[in-house]
Amino acid sequence: MLYGYEDWPKLSLESFKLGKELNPRSLRVGSIRYDFEPTSVVITGMGGSGIVGDIVRDSLWSYNIIVHKDFNIPKWVDSRSLVIAVSYSGETLETICGALDALKRGIPVVGVTTGGRLASELEGRGAPVVKVPKAIAPRFGLPNLLYAVLGVLSHYLSIPEIDESIKIQEDALKSELPGRLASFIRGHVPMIFVPLGLQAVAYRFKNDLNENAKTPAVVAVVPEADHNDIVAVMLKHPVKYIIIRGRTDDVHDYLMRAVEEVVRSYSSDVEVIELKGSSRLSQEVYGSMLLGLVSIKLAELYGIDPVRTDPINTLKEKIKGISCPSN
Ligand code: PA5
Has 227 been annotated as catalytic? Predict the structure, then answer.
């Protein structure tokens, strides 16, 4: 079973259209205007919704994109910024609080969700909401959320290579790597080295391993990892090393090759993943899909249900009644 991955290309296209159809530039919510050039875009959301912000930040790295994974948005954010609140279910308290806090402070907010309280709270205040199609679980709705956000942002920023980023998904679907990599990881903790600029791929992989395969994972972002994580190779741990190689610039390419050489000099348990695509967006979408399928295969090997995330549900239940922070 592919858990809807086979529909990603179609959903990506549809969701981009949905985001583009909602043109917030024509809107006004009380005194809040949406027809402006934002000095920054704050993307707020958690888990499978929050990773959208990481991918957008890496892909549109020449813009000031801030990823926020908490309740109220930072104090410095003001009405010159645009806030995009992403929650698949629309029921995530952190994201709802962030969106309401922003509106209260006169900052334009756009919601991206399947519905829930986020949609009703924003719509009740006249703020724009893109409603995306449903998926099996939030993280399986990545194309729905990501491309809807890109559609909204296309009214404000220039978005590269949408078509390529959708076309490249077919290559990930056809790849035989997922089964092989899942067998390689089985019974171990993966330590994932990734260059800064493509780090969202590694975090998405870690999150999918956590949630789908109930497996802990470590992300080591280069160059910072060259100054700490790399030292862990000196001892034999129950770890498998995964090196994500993509294209950002010559220096980071060189650093990743150097990291690979060092890791291989201590361990033979190393696999290299080459990201396909010419833009960062394509590489991150390709990597997210390919490595997401690895997490599904690993869940199959462990005989567990990738969809169940019982501890997340328990924690959400526990915080349900709390109020948003007051400041
Ligand atoms: O993938 C998941 O199920 C989680 O990581 C959720 O995305 C996370 O708990 C946030 O929920 P939502 O995406 O509905 O805002």
Answer: yes
User: What are the contacts of 254-262 at 24+ separation with CB within 8 A?
Assistant: 255/195, 255/222, 255/223, 255/226, 256/193, 256/195, 256/222, 258/226, 259/193, 259/222, 259/225, 259/226, 259/230, 260/193, 262/230, 262/233
Domains of the chain and CATH, by start: 5-159 (3.40.50.10490), 165-302 (3.40.50.10490)
- Shortest-distance Cα residue to atom 9 of ligand 1: 47
Q: What is the C-alpha separation between 120 and 108, in angstroms, rounded? A: 16
Q: Look at residue 327 and tell me whether its pLDDT is greater than 80.
A: no
pLDDT in tens, 238-249: 999 999 999 999
Q: Which residues line ligand 1 (CB under 6 A)?
A: 46-49, 87-89, 92, 95, 137-139, 211, 309, 312
pLDDT at 321: 87
Report the mean per-residue pLDDT for the chain. Answer: 97
pLDDT digits (tens, 9 = 90+) for 130-140: 999 999 999 99
Q: What does the alpha-carbon distance between residue 129 and residue 215 come to, in Å, rounded to a whole number?
A: 34
The share of the chain scoring above pLDDT 70, in percent, equals: 100
Distance, CA 108 to ligand 1 centroid (Å)? 23
Q: How remote is the CA of residue 88 from the centroid of ligand 1, in Å?
A: 7
> Which pLDDT score, from 0 to 100, does residue 110 have?
98
Cis amide bond preceding 128, omega within 30? no
Judge whether 211 counts as a catalytic residue: yes
Half-sphere exposure of 142 (CA within 13 A, CB side): 33
From the candidates 227, 236, 318, 320, give the one annotated as an active-site residue: 227
